Amino acid sequence: MVSRSNGIVKAVLPNGLTALLKEIHTAPVASLWVWYRVGSRNEHPGITGISHWVEHMLFKGTPRYSENDLDRLVSREGGARNGMTWLDWTTYYETMPSDKIDLALEIEADRMVNALIKPSEVNKERSVIINERQGAENSPSFRLFEEVQAAAFKAHPYGHEVIGHLCDLQAMTRDDLFGFYKTYYVPNNAVVALAGDFDTREMLDKIARRFGRLKPAARAPRVTSVEPPQTGERRVIVKGEGTTCYLMLAFRSVAASHPDFFPLVALDSVLCGASGLSFTGGATTNRSSRLSRALVDSGLAADISGGVTPTIDPYLYALFATAQPGSPIDDLERALWAELERVKHQPVTQAELDKAIKQTKAQFVFGSESVTNQAFYLGFCEMFADYRWLHTYLDRLSAVTVEDVQRVANACLTQDTVTVGRYLPQG
To answer: Which whole number is the average pLDDT over 69-74?
Structure first.
């Protein structure tokens, strides 16, 4: 099955694999991303962090390509490669000269089914990932967000960090990882996204030859957990080393498919400044935003930030403030709430909204300039909606009104649906 829209071709192979292709002939470069519909959302107590761990293991080689082969072959051809795991997905990519992209197709089709995941490598990587987690724990912001996340979610697996709990990282076995790999790394749970200098018809043939022969598997287990409504404020306090206080307010957000997602993006831009969607760049700070003027310019905070993450299920809209040394955290929280109440009861001006939307659009465009990022966006949007979500992003953002922003502010920024976190230094 093949369809075309906005210069993008979408094909679904008989084995269930989805391919998305976009020709871009501005430079002799092509970028391949392979996405799997699996992330920390698909985990449960006992195997938290397994998606991230399996991602690591797929860099350890197959019978055809050793770990050293993978790095050497891609680097030799002038390419770059990496992978990452998030709440709803895991992905791998190679960006290469377009006449060498066949190598990336071979590598990704091979490791989709032939990863070795040797017991000896599992044990080595266990130490690496535990060290990664322990390194993250040195960051007050990581420790605070982990506690806020856990308090905000009682039923949904969004309540644990992608890296997982230490006890699970210590206990998981090679069989756990291999079974997880065989369950989720299958063509009917994967999306191949390509952008760059190629002929679409020829590329579809190449994808079909390499990926089309792979056998589909039973449908991966569905995530059925639904987070119950929150009916009152929750608070957590984290104590640790350092001299700086941190404050976090995490509110109930909406799924990327919800109509209120775009007004929430505009609200965040008004409050904190524009930010991009891409994990590969495009965000910036904005000292003219409301919260920066109210909290940073007044000397209460050294920094304030926020962000809206596109997800399959409702996640969190979090505001994170770094207190200015010597500034009482109670004063900081009162001032933050005062600004949130102001945006709820006093509509933003049309000029303020226009500026926020313009800046957000600029960040979106800047974040999608490169061939690598354009291929990223194709697969990224397919994880929580479909690639057409990308093409309507700017139009739907432009359609947001002052009334939409105020309505979403009143619906989202409530004390009954907030989880407040404080990091209090003991140094």
So the answer is: 92
* Co-location of 250 and 123 in the same domain: no
SS3 202: helix
Measured at the CA of 76, the angle between CA 70 and CA 79, to 5 degrees, comes to: 75
Task: Count the Cβ atoms, other than its own, within 10 Å of residue 331.
Answer: 15
pLDDT tens, position by position, 385-395: 988 888 888 89
Same domain, 61 and 194: yes
Strands 418-425 and 234-240 turn out to be parallel
Q: Do residues 295 and 327 touch, judged by C-beta distance below 8 A?
A: no
In a domain, 224, yes or no: no
* Predicted confidence (pLDDT) per residue in 167-203, tens digit: 999 999 999 999 999 999 999 999 999 999 999 999 9
262: Cβ contacts below 8 Å, ≥ 6 apart: 393, 396, 397, 399, 400, 404
CB 227 within 8 Å of CB 28: no
Tokens representing 372 are 């690598």
Q: Is residue 226 part of a domain?
A: no
Cβ(373)–Cβ(278) under 8 Å? yes
- Cβ atoms 103, 111 nearer than 8 A: no
Amino acid, res. 219? R
* Number of Cβ atoms within 10 Å of the Cβ of 3: 9
User: Where residue 420 sits, what CATH number does that domain have?
Assistant: 3.30.830.10
Q: What tokens does 201 get?
A: 């018809």
Q: What is the DSSP letter of 229?
A: P
The whole-model pTM stands at: 0.95
Domain that holds residue 165: 2-211
Q: What amino acid is encoded at 307 in this protein?
A: G
Residues 44 and 175 in one domain: yes
Residue 40 in contact with residue 157, Cβ under 8 Å?
yes
- The separation between the first and the last C-alpha atoms of the chain, rounded to the nearest angstrom, is 62
| In the block, residue with structure tokens 């307010």 | 249
Q: Tally the domains of the chain.
A: 2
What are the φ and ψ backbone dihedral angles of 353, each rounded to 5 degrees? Answer: -65, -45
